[in-house]
Each structure stands twice: as structure tokens, then as C-alpha cells.
Amino acid sequence: MLIIRNDVKPESNIYYLGAVFLKYLQQHQKINIEDFFKKINTDYPSISINQILYTLDWLYILDLIDLIDEGVIIKCDYII
After folding, report:
1. Does residue 67 sit within a domain?
2. Burial tier of 26 (Cβ tally within 10 Å: 0-12, 13-18, 19+)
3. Domain count, the chain
4. What's the domain range around 58?
5. pLDDT band per the 50, 70, 90 thresholds, residue 65
6. Is residue 2 part of a domain?
């Protein structure tokens, strides 16, 4: 279970970052991982590469994103 800490800036929280990443992927459908890192570093310069990777791993485990074509990230869309 992931615990939300109240002493951490929202920009450093995995839940917040996950929502930001999903919103960005919803707008762009798919993106090269290098371009994604550049975009995140431009918009959120205080976010470390580890935080980006942890968030991407978390979204992948939840089956919300997938990797295709050697480093292209896509948002998984499911119809229920």
C-alpha cells in the first residue's frame, strides 16, 4: 500500500505524478520515452529521474500504460 504523506509537496507525490502523466498521455496518445522525460523535466524541473521512473513503473503495474516499439509509451484504454 502506498501511503500519502502530508509533509511532501504534491509534485513529489506518486499519485499526483501518475495523474499528470496519464493526463499528458491522454492528450498525446503515445510518446517516445526520451521526449517524455524532456517534457516532464521542462514542466517539473524539481522531479528526479527516479521519481519519474517509479511513477512509470507504478502506472505499468496498474496496467494503465504500456511500452511499445522500443521505448514508446502509450496509455492503455479499456472499455468496461
Report:
1. yes
2. exposed
3. 1
4. 10-75
5. very high
6. no
Instruction: Decide if 1 is inside a domain.
Output: no
Domain assignment present for residue 3? The answer is: no
CA-wise closest residue to 20 among 28, 8, 11, 29:
11
Cα-to-chain-centroid distance, residue 48:
12
Helices (H), the chain: 14-28, 33-43, 49-61
Residue 55: all three cell numbers together: 511513477
> What is the CATH number for 18?
1.10.10
- Model pTM score: 0.82
Nearest C-alpha neighbor of 55 from the set 8, 19, 80: 19
Q: Which three cell numbers stand for residue 12?
A: 513529489
Q: What is the pLDDT of residues 8-51, one digit of tens each?
A: 677 778 889 999 999 999 888 889 999 999 999 999 898 999 99
